[in-house]
Amino acid sequence: MKKIGVIGAGTMGFGISFYFAIHGISTHVIDVSDDVIETAKEKFKAYYQMFKEHQYPLQMSESDASAYLSFSTNLKDLSNADFIIESATENLILKQEIFKKLDAIAKPDAILASNTSSLKLTDIAIHVDNHRSSLLLTHFFNPAQIVPLIELLALDETAPHIVDEVKTFFESINKTPIIIKREVPGLAANRIQVALAREALSLLEDGIVSKEDLEKTLYDGPGFRFSASGLLKIIDFGGLDVWSVVLQNLQKEIESGQREYSTIKNLVEEQSLGVKTGKGFFEYPGKGFDAYVLQRDTELLKHLISTHY
Question: Are 25 and 68 in contact (CB under 8 A)?
């Protein structure tokens, strides 16, 4: 894993490539837009300073780290990469075309991966022939330069040693890779998030709790405990006998169907789309999207450092 390629210099591609670069891994980023590339270069400076300010254990200076990162608009520049991660727009036809081209230009032992969060790897790789045994899904979480979790999914044809190699590589740079054993929509973490959102939005729309108290409920309740352990250990500490009764009593009561949440539908119709428009469930005045993202990422970085370093 001495040379890594990343396709896409946007939000996810930037985060992935930034993390590799500050860990001393030569990374080349491809994007069709020169403007997006220039934005990524500026973001590198801002995030390096953030990491330095909050005492993340950086291995080198900003100039040395930035030397590990390069950009271009030509996919053929990845022909010598050991590991290529596609992080383009969630468009199946686009991703299929990218992987078809990668299959032709990548060196024979290159590992090809997609960072897709909603599409099936089997569909994306439909035109891949030469690299069938070295295909993976490597799903990072936004912001990828901070959140440790990476979901790994292999195809039936993927060689077992490829999965082991990629898992070991991510562990060596302090990421937390998990193995998804079977291809299902949403993989693991997003399915859990959607289940949580379904119940939370139901409580809000059914008038059980205000949006302000809903935030407090998650932040200072389950979220507070999740910062120290996963769900199964929480069940272990609560007692499986207790949880067995709780599940029996509450499963029939919680939201388990499919419904359109009018709260979100109405906000979308009025173009209140969240931080990027200045208003969603809450208002975000004045600072602009990028400033709010930096504020969020600063809090996440402080949490990462306090829990992992």
Answer: yes
Domain of residue 11, CATH code: 3.40.50.720
Stretch 56-70: mean pLDDT:
97
C-alpha to C-alpha distance for 76 and 42, rounded to whole angstroms? 25
160 and 14 within one domain:
yes
Instruction: Determine the distance from the C-alpha atom of residue 91 to the mean position of all C-alpha atoms in its chain, rounded to a whole number.
Output: 17
Q: Are residues 84 and 163 in the same domain?
A: yes
Q: Which domain holds residue 235?
A: 207-259
Are 254 and 268 found together in one domain?
A: no
Same-domain check for residues 161 and 245: no
Cα–Cα distance between 169 and 152 in angstroms, integer? 12
pLDDT band at 292, cuts 50/70/90?
very high
Q: What is the DSSP letter of 79?
A: T
Question: Does the pLDDT at position 1 exceed 90?
Answer: no
- pLDDT above 90 (res 166): yes
167 and 249 inside one domain: no
Pair type for strands 3-7 and 26-30? parallel
Strands (E), 69-185: 69-72, 83-86, 111-114, 135-140, 149-154, 176-180
Task: For residue 191, report the phi and psi dihedrals to the nearest 5 degrees.
Answer: -65, -40
Query: Is pLDDT above 90 for 258?
Result: no
pTM more than 0.70: yes
Contacts 24+ apart (CB under 8 A), 264-272: 264/201
Same domain? For 48 and 163 the reply is yes
Chain mean pLDDT for the chain: 96
The greatest distance separating any two alpha carbons of the chain, rounded to the nearest whole angstrom, comes to: 59
